[in-house]
Structure formats: structure tokens, C-alpha cells
Design brief:
heterodimer; A: 256 residues; alpha/beta; 37% helix; globular; B: eight-stranded mixed β-sheet; four-stranded mixed β-sheet; 6 helices
Chain lengths: 256, 205
Amino acid sequence: MISKRIIPCLDVNKGRVVKGVSFVNLKDAGDPVELAAFYDREGADEIVFLDITASHERRKTVVELASKTSEKVFIPYTIGGGINSTEDVREVLKNGADKVSINTSAVLNPDLISKSSSIFGNQCIVVAIDAKRTTKGNWEVYIHGGRTPTGIDALIWAQQAQRLGAGEILLTSMDRDGTKDGYDLELTKNVVEAVNIPVIASGGAGNLEHLRDVFIIANADAALVASIFHYGQHTIREAKEYLLSEGIDVRLADKK
Amino acid sequence: MYIAVIDYNMGNIKSVANAFLSLGISIEVTCSPEVIMNASGVVLPGVGAFHDAVRNLKDLNLHNSIGKIIEQKKPFLGICIGMQVLFEYGTEGQICSGLGILKGSVEKIPSGVKIPHMGWNRLKIIKKDSRIFKDIKDAESFYFVHSYYAVPANSNIVSSTTEYGTELVSSVEAGNTFGLQFHPEKSSSCGLKILSNFADLAFKN
């Protein structure tokens, strides 16, 4: 059967990785391509780049990133940020990316999901959802990088995204993001059960037990990880050896 | 001496080309029958729908070149949809004729599992002496993205299978003709090893 995936996430601004990455053995740890190639060698299953550049140049920067990455990275990679039209999707895919992640534009223009998936196939359309717990106990979708509440229920939106043609959901808990307190297992489990496309859990990973829990308790298909790897707390290999010892099927690349 | 990578407008050509280039292997990305015929080995990559792939090949008049290459026993590698089109027919949407070079059909993955089959999955290598799997261990993982899979009429050509709800054919091999359902260009060092094995046998041929 298919393995659970471990996906390092790189936030990119104007072509540079934003969250400081502390590896001594990289020539330039701020170069997203160099860092992605490093994670490929380390045994990452995929890479997600989130471009947070706020300018009109954004499309150019994501297309350039897609193109440069395809020269050095030989695992699948997703690019998100600045994807507003089927033309954007086409350019990024044509330049070597395997998937695009759409967040704000998908909410404001759900047609973008259906059009893109019918042209390029649903396997390459990832709908990213930023969700925050409400006082009523459900989760609300936020857009514009978490600044704008939409009043939309995250579970309902996830189902609608699937119906429109999303091939995967990238689910970020805004409550947990940056806390290192662990993934929001309840949110993740609820979304996993609401849809039958893969769900990538994101936000809150602080240690390896958190990864185990999101796979075993919430049944996520993949886990997005940033600081655990970026700051050298664990290598991908350590994470995968631990998960294997906990009975979770992950791909363990040969030691080189 | 070069490997021809056929560009027929079916996506991810760049990834396949870059994978060969990263290995220092000389390639030509082309849709010219002449360049294809003069290559040491030929790769047909691809992502997309069966009928689009067949139509594009016929529009470019490449189905004949592919037939000749295989007839001449020149090393040929079909990847994903590039492998599927070698069979007699596909069942995606409607029944659609393929190139008919290999006997059998392309069928939808049986229900009960998430479709597309997307992610890393293991190979059970059937042909242990396969030249393309040289130095690849059994049960190694590769990256898959597909909703349909090949059902060869002759099980002798199956070189590996993969468990996904049922036992799917994940690669085929008939003489110098190879087909991979997974994407070697997206399967990290093990995938690159397969491409390098293919180049080795093409240049030594």
C-alpha cells in the first residue's frame, strides 16, 4: 500500500527562503532550490514551496522557482502562492512543478478549481485551507494569509473543493501553526473523514510524536513539517526510522 | 550518441529531460521522426489522458517511428501514459485504440481505494535479472500518479507489480522495450538509477 508522506515546507519570499534554516553543510541555505535538493537527498517524499512574495512580480518568481527546482530536485514538488488563473497553473506545471496549491483564489473563485482540474487533471490541484477554531466548536476558513475570515465552515469547504476537482487538501490549523504543540488532530481527523482525497496536515509539528499522532490518530495521508527539520532538531531519516518503529509505513531511502 | 526524449505535448517533458541531464546523459528533446530514428535509445514520457496521448502521437506521425524503433529492437522506454499507449486499447472515457505494440489493455484501477493512486509505493520485482532494475532492491519505493493501469495479455512481460487494493502491473519488459507505470524522474536517487540503467543499455546496444 501507499506510504505516508513527509513533506518539508519552504516559505519563499522574493526567491529566498524566509524562515532561517540552520544547516552548516549547505552553501546557501537561503536558496530554496539548494534546500529542496538537500531534502531530496535526505529522503523527503515531496516538497511544498509557499511563495509569500507580495508584488506584481509574483507570477514570474513562482515560474522561475518551478523551473530552477526541476533542474535539481527529483521528487514531486508543489508550488503555492500567486496562482490566480489557469494560465498561472499552466506556466508553473510546464516548468516542472507537479502540483499547484491554491488558497485565497480558490475561495474567491471556485471556478478556478474546476477549470484547472479539468484541463490539467485533479492530481495536480491542491486546495490549501487555513482553518481556525470558532467558539461554536467548528472551524472557519480564513484567506489572505490568515487575515480575512470568510464565515465558511472548513469541513464544508473541503467537501466542496473535492467536488469541484481538488486532488488533495493541504490543511493548516491556524491555532497550532508556529506553536510546536502538535497538529490539530481533531480538525485533521474531521477533514480526513469528510473527504476521500488525500489530506496533508499542517501546523504545529514540534516533535516526532506529533508526526506519529497525526498519522495514527487523525489518519492524515501526509504531514507538512517545517521547523523540526529546518532547525536541525531531527533529520528526515530519524523521523522516518521513528515512524517505522511505530508501525507506520514510510519510504526509507537507502543510506548513501 | 544521445537518448531521444519525445516531446508530444503531454506534460512533464522538462522533468524527464532534466533528470537525464543531471546524470550527464546526452539527450535530444524532439518530435522529429529523423532525430528519433537516429537515437541510441528513445524515451516516451507523459502525463495525461490516453486518447490525448494517442491523438498527439498520430498527429505528429510519431506512432510509425515508435513502431519502427521497437521493431529494430532499439532500447525504448515508455513512462506512465507513454507506457500505456503501447497497448492495444485504453478504456479511459471510451474505448480508444492504442499503438498495439504490446498485447493487452489499459483499465481503471478497481474501486475501493483512493483514485488517483498517488504517492510512493513499493515494487515487487518479478524479473530479478531485469537490466533496467540493476542495483534496485526488491520492495524499493517509487512515485506513482495514475488512475488507469496496464493489463498485459501475456503475463510474461510483467517485470514488477505493486500492491494497491489489488496487484497492479507497475512495469513491463519485452526484449528492449520497457514500460514503467511510476515516474523515475520523480523517484529520487532510485528513479535516477533506473534512467541511468536505461542509458547504459542504450549506449552499449
